[in-house]
Amino acid sequence: MRSEDIIRPENLVYKKTPLMTDNILSYCPGCGHGTAHRIIMETIDEMGLQENTIGVCPVGCSVLAYDFMNIDMQQAAHGRAPALATGIKRTWPHRLVFTYQGDGDLAAIGTNETIHACNRGENFTIIFINNGIYGMTGGQMAPTTLVGMKTSTSPYGRDVHRMGFPLKITELVAQLPGTWFVTRQAVHTPATVRKAKKAIRTAFEAQRDNKGGTTFIEIVSNCNSGWKMRPVESNKWMEENMFPFYPLGDIKVEGKLVK
Amino acid sequence: MGELRLMKGNEAIGEAAIRAGVDGYFGYPITPQSEIIEYLMAEKPHERTGMVVLQAESEVASINMVYGAAATGKKAMTTSSSPGVSLMMEGLSYCAGAEIPCVVVNVVRGGPGLGTIQPSQADYFQATKGGGHGDYRLIVLAPASVQEMSDFVKLAFHLAFKYRNPVMILSDGVIGQMMEKVELFEPIPRWTEEEITRLSPWATTGKTKNRERNIITSLDLDPARHEKHNIKLQEKYAKIVENEVLCEKINCDDAEYLIVAYGCSARIAQKTLDLARAKGIKLGLLRAITLWPFPTKPIQELLGHIKGILTCELSAGQMVEDVRLAVGNNIPVKHYGRMGGMLFTPDEILHVLEQKIIGG
Ligand SMILES: Cc1ncc(C[n+]2csc(CCOP(=O)(O)OP(=O)(O)O)c2C)c(N)n1
Ligand code: SF4
Fold it and tell me: I need a surface site. Which of A83, A183, A188, B233 has the fewest CB within 10 A?
């Protein structure tokens, strides 16, 4: 069989979603951001919601997400995405609205906006990429940085006496009565990608059907550049070090804590 | 004739917001303007027009809620007072950079810091010269009556959408708190979805098949493109300077001396005109209505017969710098101000005029 035959539409089992543009991703090769983008866009496409979606990307490596996502998007100031999303969703209640935020963005400068949007039960979806570090600015310590983890501003490892403890913001928002679905996923293997995509679908459906609460998906991801590791090595490190502290799985389902 | 009511300045803002067809109000309480959100909540605008009113968790959040809603082509506004407006400066810089039409009301109180809850005009620099980062401008309107608190909400939205720019109504604790007769304008219906997509084709309303995706951003990492964007903004600001200056000239035709003032100071100074004329002093008043663009030309047009200018502001002297820029070194320009919530009286102004300008 010639390759031309294989790529005939009827033979294709997988293709790029038209909801991703052809622009070259600005993420480092091996980084989880690209995969996370793809499954969000695939889900919107499969749900037929392209015309109905408004995305918000704030500051961090994902600041240029609008270059890759073929939907209407707004770029927000560092940490403020949940406030923008509140403004959008409150005035366009029938649009699908999501934010796409890093851990520095969501759990440091934007803690206030995150907690209050979730506590009001704003009916939008927060997608939270937790790589335990500030990627974009060159690998500084984040609130989610693990104890002992070396970063450019914790060069001898995070020391809790001077730098405080890692913040499990996802467990925190799950406690709030305003959240409806809170889950922690990953995107580094085919199996985790499938689960993460299912979680996104659950969240978007809940939002569309107005189930009554914020939907929140943490994706534990790698930052091979910030962690100063090769991609494969970074995923292994993530499994061994991040997952024990940030265990994968649902935390709140249909408004009820399950963990 | 529209409906007449006796209202507080702050309430007039609230009523005007509903009548202007605002889709979303996002605010946080702070004296001396909390009556605005209180009025809005009590009026149930969600029942009257479908307008959303939300008490945000902070001013940082409220201006960003405005940013989000306004970027979708909706009419969105917030109101606050000085310390709260300081927190909004980040959001305003983003709105200016992304060319978002929105309205912010600052009912100014005394500063710096927590200062006082009493009236002041010490936020002039912040409103007209920046406050947030970058080369940007806000259109700044200064009401001097409860009537204008109402009218300027409508005007502010008109200008905001005409230029895709944030507009600030720079009021003060006196105008916000005092009660006066106000003639309310006829309600304007909120825009329909069809109207929004027609009037604001740039807005993020959801990408339809027949258009490219809309992106609202203030970011451009390409220096040449980013410079181009900034030049475009400056060209827009030049157009606003050319077309949108507003001021009121009272007894200026034969005036030999001039007071320049705005907001509550202009209200007080108006009385000084009578006191001066009774003494045979030909005194006129130029009341700035737009603080940016500043009424530079209208002041210059009077220079043929004016021998000296006194600016009266409730600050250490902020607008006086713009008057000096307009006038140059040709005639004396002096400032008289009170701070911390203290007001001046018409007599006091006349006394200072006689001392500093006429005798000086
Ligand atoms: C007000 C403000 N403070 C600081 C910055 C600089 N800054 C840009 S990205 C970033 C950290 C982003 O980290 P994270 O949200 O974890 O995203 P990542 O880059 O890791 O994907 C910081 C501090 C900024 N842009 N704005
Ligand atoms: S710096 Fe880290 S988070 Fe950012 S693109 Fe590179 S690997 Fe990904």
Answer: B233
Mean pLDDT, to the nearest integer, of B254-276? 98
One-letter amino acid for residue B278 of the chain: A
A50 touches chain B (CB under 8 A): yes
Question: What is the interface pTM, i.e. ipTM, of the complex?
Answer: 0.95
Which of helix, strand or coil describes residue A150? coil
Rounded to the nearest angstrom, the distance between the alpha carbon of A138 and the centre of ligand 2 is 9
Q: Is A112 on the interface with B (CB under 8 A)?
A: yes
DSSP state of A51: G
B/e letters for A3-39, b = 16+ CB within 10 Å, e = fewer, are eeeeeeeeeeeeeebebbbeeebbbbebbbbbbbbbb
Question: Residue A142 CA: which ligand 1 atom is closest?
Answer: 16
Min Cα–Cα distance to chain B from A256, Å = 25
A251 backbone dihedrals φ, ψ, rounded to 5°: -110, -35
Q: Is A72 on the interface with B (CB under 8 A)?
A: yes
Across the interface, whether the CB atoms of A75 and B215 are under 8 A apart is answered yes
What would the pLDDT profile of A195-215 be if each residue is shown by its tens digit?
999 999 999 999 999 998 999
Assess contact for B197 and B56: CB atoms under 8 A: no
Mean pLDDT, chain A, as a whole number? Answer: 97
The three-class DSSP label of residue B30 is coil
pLDDT digits over B111-136, tens only?
A: 999 999 999 999 999 999 989 999 99
- For residue A137, the ligand closest to its alpha carbon is 1
3-state secondary structure of A144: coil
Tell me whether B94 touches chain A (CB under 8 Å). yes
The model's pLDDT over A157-209, given as tens digits with 9 standing for 90+, comes to 999 999 999 999 999 999 999 999 999 999 999 999 999 999 999 999 999 99
Strand order across the A53-57 sheet: A256-257, A249-253, A179-186, A214-220, A125-130, A96-102, A53-57, A72-75, B215-216
Interface test mutation site (partner A, options B58, B64, B133, B216, max chain A beta carbons within 10 A): B64
Q: Which is nearest to B237 in space by CA: B177, B165, B310, B338?
A: B165
- Strand ranges, E, within chain B: 4-8, 24-27, 52-55, 76-80, 102-108, 139-141, 166-172, 179-183, 215-216, 247-250, 257-261, 283-288, 290-292, 308-313, 333-337
